[in-house]
Write a structure and sequence with these properties.
There is one protein chain. By secondary structure, the chain is mainly α. It has a domain of 65 residues. It is built from 5 helices and no strands. The longest helix has 18 residues.
Length: 97
């Protein structure tokens, strides 16, 4: 069985494959509900506790890549016209960015 460190090394190796930094265009139609959920999942995943096994994979990911994910969530909210609603939901739930 692979240790957490082994899994992180495999994940880092996959991210280092030539061409992984190339931009791809994705034409995506998604409901506003799913845009809100996607943004929430991105934010929650990036805020995972350090002792969380799933977040151990993210420790080897450069901060600029994590920031790109945050930006993706924000861009989706912007395009769906949901930034204000998302902010208000964050205030209601007691979470802030």
């Amino acid at each position: 069985m692979l240790t957490t460190n082994d899994v992180a090394q495999v994940f880092d190796t996959i991210l280092s494959i030539p061409g992984m930094n190339e931009l791809v265009k994705i034409d995506l139609k998604i409901s506003r509900k799913n845009v809100l959920l996607l943004n929430h999942v991105i934010e929650r995943g990036l805020l995972a506790k350090v002792d969380d096994k799933a977040s151990n994979l993210l420790t080897s990911v450069p901060e600029e890549n994590l920031e790109e994910l945050r930006s993706l969530g924000g861009e989706c909210l912007l395009k769906a016209g949901l930034i204000e609603l998302s902010e208000k939901l964050n205030v209601l739930s007691g979470t802030t960015k």
